[in-house]
């Protein structure tokens, strides 16, 4: 533990909150051969020590966004018509789709959804972690292995020195995800992107992995982008939440604000589709309809085809409206309660 | 590992016995009388009978088989009906020639086929990929004999760079031996390179899409390292299996190329033996070839286990 911390000091806790660790502006993404954007002009902001949860249904563009920020999207599969990123005070033009490889696995790291297939079956896990160290640090194999072992210990793997010599198939899914986390964090990144890291795991293991991520994140004051479709995960971890629908961010804000006072009809629908343990048993509400395919996405507000409040006005793209306390909503009728009652 | 190899060897025994029965039976089923072939113009029944007795061709067939197989196990594969040389000695003379040819061809095949396959997988859909595929398809479609003749015409006759034919043993003159065999090895190797390239390409394409390759990229590794270490290592399994099979085929099936370049190898021995109904030689060759194939497969299996940590220790 200690030699990791000595290696690179964590971000200053008292750094001004006004300079975020990562700021993404007007990011759009389109799959080659399609005419419409799958992600359309989104902005993201993450500060050191903050956990931003991006939540949305499958296909809303949250995973491809994460991949693009890591520079992992193959350029022959997708293009980025617009978007820029400022990461640790350095600007990057996302449209060129060439993020420097030295960032990956060093200053920003990623963990994935599939721990069972994300480790290379042909190599020992120690070598796979040490490889990440040696790629970014000038050190010997022995030193890299030492750090790999320390890291395995930090992610709660029993007998870490022996595990270094094991192959991925000798570990369970939960253990493999711990190894993935160790591999991602071994170079002490400033930003961690986690793409549904618990979706493929058993429920009991899910909680352990979430605890682990939160613990490591807090100790290292890491900025974290967590991609999920699970509102339980959001409630558990998030500092701020961004709700995505059809490739756009429809609502964003501090997690307490968004959970207590959701403003976008889609967010409200998502919240009421979660079962509650307290209160009377009622039928769960669902968001009516299904997500249209990208080609069938309506112009203007993309949620209008499923929105109970949709009117003519929704044919224009709603701008982000400030609801106060960093809470923003992209809906013509926000704040919903007062405006809808006026219309009704 | 050792127990794995021993187990595989044990499994090979019934296979070899079965093959030996087939080989022997096939010989007996073929039309034509070897004694007549041997006797040539001589048609004296007494002479023919003498020959039959000498080669024990009058024994019941099972007895003939057991005589043959027990002798074979002692290393005695009989005597060529045509040249009166022991079969094992004949094979011993020709086999090194063919193995040298096979090894050199395989080197050509691997050195051309694998990099081409990796390159065309990595550059999928680009000009590089198309060119590699067209060249590979040409390599598969151009008959060896034609390529061989063209090479002889160009390289040997016109430019006079390499000898057109013949064979120099390695022990006699290493350099000359290699240069003499360069062209035939190239002819055989390019055809195999095409097969290898296609298989390497498809194996790499599958592996490059896998999650662990994405992980390797997420670690910030260079693309070169991602492809050559993380992806290629996992694509190797089918390539190793294919290489072993191709090598077996090379030893058994270089007949045409050996003829064109007049290399006194295994292929020529087979053809001559078949045409002359030289039973003992054909039987010996088929048996040795089969054992060679089994051996190559064993090597492939061992490599397969070495490449797959999941199979180790089982």
TrEMBL record, chain B:
It is a multi-pass membrane protein. GO terms for molecular function: dipeptide transmembrane transporter activity. The chain crosses the membrane at residues 9-30, 99-122, 134-157, 177-196, 239-261, 281-307. One of its GO terms (cellular component) is plasma membrane. Residues 95-304 form the ABC transmembrane type-1 domain. The keyword Transmembrane applies. It comes from the Bacteria. Its main location: membrane. Keywords: Cell membrane, Membrane, Transmembrane, Transmembrane helix, Transport. It is found in: Cell membrane. Pfam families: BPD_transp_1 (PF00528), BPD_transp_1_N (PF19300). Belongs to the binding-protein-dependent transport system permease family. This is ABC transporter permease. It comes from Sulfitobacter sabulilitoris.
């Amino acid at each position: 533990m200690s030699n990791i911390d000595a290696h690179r000091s964590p971000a200053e806790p008292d750094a001004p909150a006004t300079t975020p660790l990562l700021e993404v502006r007007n990011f759009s993404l389109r799959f080659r051969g399609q005419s419409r954007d799958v992600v359309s002009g989104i902005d993201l902001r993450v500060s050191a020590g903050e956990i931003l949860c991006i939540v949305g249904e499958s296909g809303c563009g949250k995973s491809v966004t994460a991949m693009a920020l890591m520079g992992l999207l193959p350029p022959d599969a997708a293009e980025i018509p617009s978007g820029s990123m400022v990461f640790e005070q350095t600007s990057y033009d996302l449209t060129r789709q060439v993020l420097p490889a030295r960032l990956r696995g060093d200053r920003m790291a990623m963990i994935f959804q599939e721990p069972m297939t994300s480790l290379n079956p042909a190599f020992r896990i120690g070598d796979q972690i040490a490889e990440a160290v040696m790629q970014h640090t000038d050190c010997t194999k022995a030193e890299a292995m030492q750090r790999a072992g320390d890291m395995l210990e930090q992610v709660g793997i029993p007998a870490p020195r022996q595990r270094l010599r094991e192959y991925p198939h000798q570990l369970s899914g939960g253990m493999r995800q711990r190894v993935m986390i160790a591999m991602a964090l071994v170079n002490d990144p400033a930003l961690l992107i986690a793409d549904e890291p618990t979706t493929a795991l058993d429920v009991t293991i899910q909680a352990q992995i979430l605890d682990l991520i939160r613990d490591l994140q807090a100790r290292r004051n890491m900025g974290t982008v967590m991609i999920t479709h699970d509102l339980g995960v959001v409630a558990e971890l998030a500092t701020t939440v961004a709700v995505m629908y059809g490739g756009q961010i429809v609502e964003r804000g501090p997690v307490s604000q968004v959970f207590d006072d959701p403003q976008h009809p889609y967010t409200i629908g998502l919240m009421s589709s979660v079962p509650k343990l307290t209160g009377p048993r009622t039928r769960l509400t669902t968001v009516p309809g299904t997500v249209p395919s990208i080609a069938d996405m309506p112009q203007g507000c993309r949620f209008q085809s499923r929105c109970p409040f949709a009117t003519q006005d929704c044919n224009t793209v709603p701008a982000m409206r400030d609801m106060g306390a960093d809470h923003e909503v992209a809906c013509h009728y926000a704040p919903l309660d007062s405006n809808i009652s006026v219309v009704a | 590992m050792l127990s794995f190899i021993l187990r595989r060897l044990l499994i090979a025994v019934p296979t070899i016995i079965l093959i030996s029965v087939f080989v022997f039976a096939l010989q007996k089923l073929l039309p034509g009388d070897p004694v007549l072939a041997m006797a040539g113009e001589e048609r004296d029944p007494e002479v023919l009978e003498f020959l039959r007795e000498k080669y024990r061709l009058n024994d019941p067939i099972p007895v003939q088989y057991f005589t043959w197989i027990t002798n074979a196990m002692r290393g005695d594969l009989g005597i060529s009906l045509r040249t009166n040389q022991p079969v094992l000695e004949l094979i011993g003379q020709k086999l090194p020639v063919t193995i040298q040819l096979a090894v050199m061809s395989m080197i050509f095949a691997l050195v051309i086929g694998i990099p081409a396959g990796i390159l065309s997988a990595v550059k999928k859909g680009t000009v590089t990929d198309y060119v590699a595929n067209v060249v590979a398809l040409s390599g598969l479609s151009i008959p060896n004999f034609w390529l061989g003749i063209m090479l002889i015409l160009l390289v040997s006759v016109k430019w006079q760079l390499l000898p057109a034919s013949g064979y120099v043993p390695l022990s006699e003159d290493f350099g000359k031996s290699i240069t003499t065999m360069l062209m035939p090895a190239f002819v055989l190797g390019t055809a195999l390179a095409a097969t290898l390239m296609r298989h390497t390409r498809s194996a790499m394409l599958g592996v490059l899409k896998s999650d662990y390759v994405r992980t390797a990229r997420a670690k910030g590794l260079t693309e070169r390292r991602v492809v050559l270490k993380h992806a290629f290592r996992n694509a190797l399994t089918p390539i190793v299996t294919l290489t072993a099979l191709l090598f077996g085929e090379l030893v058994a099936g270089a007949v045409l190329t050996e003829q064109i370049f007049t290399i006194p190898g295994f292929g020529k021995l087979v053809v001559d033996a078949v045409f002359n109904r030289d039973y003992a030689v054909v039987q010996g060759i088929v048996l040795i070839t089969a054992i060679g194939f089994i051996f190559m497969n064993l090597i492939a299996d061992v490599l397969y286990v070495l490449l797959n940590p999941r199979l180790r220790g089982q």
